[in-house]
């Protein structure tokens, strides 16, 4: 396991404990050095180099995977988290979908959704708790001009980097925020470069348990951030059959529609060029936002697959998270956890799903954009 000593620096500001710390103040990135993992230029951007990449065995753990887990475990030993996520109870909900539910009684106040009528409501793990202490920032990730990837113990944050920050209220093991930043500022919109960098993080971690999530529909959204953690098994949506919607381009982009699943979902895969797929996904998401179609992303399979979940145009505060779209439900109440049924969760997901007509329109949009990038 790779170990890395935290660089003490008292210049990291603590500011009211509010999210405005990352939204409006970026001085903590200036004139301060952090551990840095740099992608090599011999990367998965080039055609055909992505095709042979597959999840590696634990004894052959990648450097980036070892760095993330060792630093996350170090913060666990130091008591940086509000509870021990490994003590949370998880079960498969009876039924063909094999939905997963988690009971996390460590979450009592401040991060829990309030029940509305008789509807089962889970607490929201995507409420961004910005960095209050310097040890919450594990390290940064960026590109470099060197041929091979490398770990630098201390470096200033370059343009177009990813900040890796622990989620102090984790939902699963290794739960972190992946926060794109550029020129010492955070991104305020989803762009191809940030999608590419985050997907490359998943690819270089190269662990089949690692998944990345993005919600476009967060209330009061001001900055772009992703979340990631490790699941011991694939999420329920990943077991569903698919129907091919688009394939055949020379860039190796494949689009499939997930069949027999309660929320409309498209799957994007590539075996050739991650950078091209990231650019196509970003343009698709931009069009969806223009049309007020709410969506979520899940990056899996070491960056080779991106799932696009499509929701109705609700108020952002009523939208569901990518976690839930994937079939992973969170509960704070033992009674709700014990009583949950597959039918209830099917109805819940279906109530948020995009309708059939608009789904067909989105599929046509995706095929049109993919053909432009895949030629």
TrEMBL record:
Residues 64-229 form the GDPGP1-like N-terminal domain. It comes from the Eukaryota. Pfam families: GDPGP1_C, GDPGP1_N. GO terms for cellular component: cytoplasm. It is found in: Cytoplasm. The keyword Hydrolase applies. This is GDP-L-galactose phosphorylase 1. It comes from Theobroma cacao (Cacao).
């Amino acid at each position: 396991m790779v170990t890395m000593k935290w660089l003490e620096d008292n210049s990291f500001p603590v500011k009211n404990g509010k999210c405005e710390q990352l939204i409006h103040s970026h001085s903590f990135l200036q004139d301060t050095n952090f551990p840095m993992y740099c992608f090599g230029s011999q990367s998965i951007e080039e055609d055909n180099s992505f095709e042979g990449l597959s999840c590696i065995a634990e004894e052959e753990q990648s450097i980036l995977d070892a760095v993330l887990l060792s630093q996350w475990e170090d913060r666990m030993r130091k008591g940086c988290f509000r509870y021990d996520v490994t003590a949370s109870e998880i079960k498969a909900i009876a039924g063909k979908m094999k939905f997963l539910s988690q009971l996390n009684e460590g979450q009592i106040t401040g991060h829990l959704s309030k029940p509305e009528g008789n509807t089962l409501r889970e607490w929201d793990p995507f409420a961004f708790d910005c960095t209050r202490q310097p040890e919450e920032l594990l390290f940064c990730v960026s590109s470099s001009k060197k041929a091979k990837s490398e770990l630098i113990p201390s470096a200033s944050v370059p343009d177009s980097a990813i900040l890796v920050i622990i989620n102090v209220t984790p939902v699963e093991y290794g739960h972190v925020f992946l926060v794109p930043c550029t020129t010492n500022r955070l991104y305020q919109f989803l762009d191809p470069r940030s999608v590419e960098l985050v997907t490359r993080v998943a690819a270089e971690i190269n662990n089949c348990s690692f998944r990345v999530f993005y919600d476009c529909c967060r209330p009061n959204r001001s900055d772009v951030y992703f979340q990631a953690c490790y699941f011991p098994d694939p999420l329920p949506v990943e077991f569903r059959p698919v129907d091919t919607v688009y394939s055949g381009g020379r860039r190796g982009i494949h689009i499939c529609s997930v069949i027999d699943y309660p929320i409309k979902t498209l799957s994007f895969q590539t075996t050739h060029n991650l950078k091209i797929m990231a650019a196509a996904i970003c343009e698709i998401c931009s069009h969806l936002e223009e049309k007020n179609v709410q969506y979520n992303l899940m990056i899996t399979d070491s960056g080779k697959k991106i799932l696009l979940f499509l929701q109705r145009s609700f108020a952002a505060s009523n939208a569901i998270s990518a976690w839930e779209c994937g079939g992973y439900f969170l509960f704070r109440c033992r009674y709700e956890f014990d009583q949950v049924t597959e039918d209830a969760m099917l109805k819940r997901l279906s109530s948020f799903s995009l309708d059939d007509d608009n789904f067909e329109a989105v599929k046509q949009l995706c095929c049109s954009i993919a053909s432009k990038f895949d030629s």
